[in-house]
Amino acid sequence: MTGQQKFDHAMSMKPFEKKQDIPIFPVFPHTCTWAAVPADVTQAYLFRGNKSWMEAYKKTCDVVGWPDVAFPLGPKTVTYIEQMAVRIPGKDLGPNELFQFVEKEGMKEEDYDLIIAKGFGAWQMPYVASIQNPPFTGPFAKFKTIFGFIKCGMEVGQNRKFWDSKNIPMMFHGGTAPAFDTFSMSRGMGEFACDLYDCPEKVKAACEKATPEIIATGINGVKKSGGDRIAIFAMRCSATFISPAMFEEFAWPYLKQMMLAFHEAGITPVLHADGNWLPMLPYLLELPDGSYIVELDGDTDIEKAYEILKGHGIIRGDVPPAIMAFGTAEDVKNYCDKLVNLAMGGGFIIGTGCEVPLNTPIENMKALLNCTK
Questions:
Q1: Structural element, H or E, at residue 246
Q2: What is the DSSP string of 356-367?
Q3: Peptide bond preceding 282: is omega within 30 degrees of 0, i.e. cis?
Q4: Which are the contacts of 261, defined by CB distance < 8 A and separation ≥ 6?
Q5: Are 240 and 276 in contact (CB under 8 A)?
Q6: Looking at residue 225, what is its pLDDT?
Q7: What is the maximum alpha-carbon separation in the chain?
Q8: Is 214:120 a contact under the CB 8 Å cutoff?
Q9: Based on CB atoms within 10 Å of each CB, which residue in 40, 111, 158, 338 is the most buried?
């Protein structure tokens, strides 16, 4: 079976009959920065741009094997769309150090008022320009920022042509984030936590104003790429950061609005759910059956998650980073055996818990890629 055929079967959520079916599941290693390791290049090399990253990714696949599902974005693209200040390898860091997001107060409290009055874009473009390394300045800063997002979309389209030629689907064809998570990352976790207590109605009003714009931009980007899946990087609304009650009040209404809107537009949302999502997962049952993929990173109990979502949503996960980096190939295989047992029930993509750590041994990646053989 091709990667696309395996992926399509997972999306169908059809279970396997142990005595009748050949249980073949898609395997997706979230390979971004790790692509430099088997390719024997530096992180600074990956940051030269999408072409350099794809060259490294292809070399990596030649060394360890080809995945069933591919990650579509290199680190330079990832750091641009995440909308946080970043320290770059070879520039602010050593040439082979992992890039670093900078947790700081970039967005100001008064920016909520700007968004409420003039819309999300009125704040977003100047803000993204201000956090570039170096910042975009001058009369053309806005256009540089817009072109940066357009370029990211074009790169996704270019990468898709290659993976399509291999019959390997990309996990998603565009990316976005809920307003709640964007504000948390842009304000800084400490300041944003205070906002939820000091000016909660203002935060909700800004989320309400921003969400339709975020949806429209996401749909437009995915449609232009010719794809039908969009990543939603909801990385600050797990139980690791907020309580279930806060999730229900501040995050879920707008996340649900996004996921429903994408589904109605014929786009499958891929919810990138870092942190502990176990208390939040029952909310996903309010969505249509089979309308989403949720990616778990090892902090959520994968077996309990599958009990909640089995037959309703597709799960991708979740070999923990600690096992990938510090375990043996046998440890990886043993963990994958647990995932295979879950995947027999259908609607499951075997993969790493978020990104493959930079210090993952090559033997461990091979064990993951061969875990279904």
A1: helix 244-246
A2: PPTT--HHHHHH
A3: no
A4: 215, 219
A5: yes
A6: 85
A7: 67
A8: yes
A9: 111
Number of residues that make up the chain: 373
- For residue 186, CA distances in Å to 93, 245, 296, 322 come to 22, 22, 23, 28
Strands 86-87 and 100-101: antiparallel
Question: Which amino acid does the sequence have at 327?
Answer: G
State the pLDDT at residue 226: 87
Peptide bond into 318 cis (omega under 30): yes
Q: Encoding tokens for residue 42? A: 């530096």
Helix axes of 200-225 and 141-165: crossing angle, nearest 10 degrees: 50
Q: Residue 355: in which H helix or E strand, if any?
A: strand 348-355
pLDDT digits (tens, 9 = 90+) for 19-37: 667 778 999 999 999 999 9
Q: Which residues contact 89 (CB under 8 A, 6 or more apart)?
A: 42, 43, 44, 46, 47, 95, 96, 97, 98, 99
Q: In the chain, which stretches have pLDDT less than 50? A: none
Do 228 and 268 contact (CB within 8 A), yes or no? yes
DSSP state of 277: -
Amino acid making up residue 212:
P
Return d(Cα 243, Cα 253) in angstroms, integer.
15
The CA distance from 135 to 129, in Å, is 6
CA angle in degrees (0–180, nearest 5) for 180-182-188:
100
DSSP string of 293-332, one letter each residue: EEEE-SSS-HHHHHHHHTTTSEEEEEE-HHHHHHS-HHHH
The CA distance from 221 to 213, in Å, is 12
> Which residues touch 253 (CB under 8 Å, ≥6 apart)?
207
pLDDT number for residue 284: 98
Structure tokens at 184: 């948390």
Q: Any idea which residue has 């939603």 for tokens?
A: 232
Paired strand residues for 272: 233, 295
Please give the distance of CA 309 from its chain centroid, rounded to a whole number.
19
Distance separating alpha carbons of residues 250 and 283, to the nearest angstrom: 13
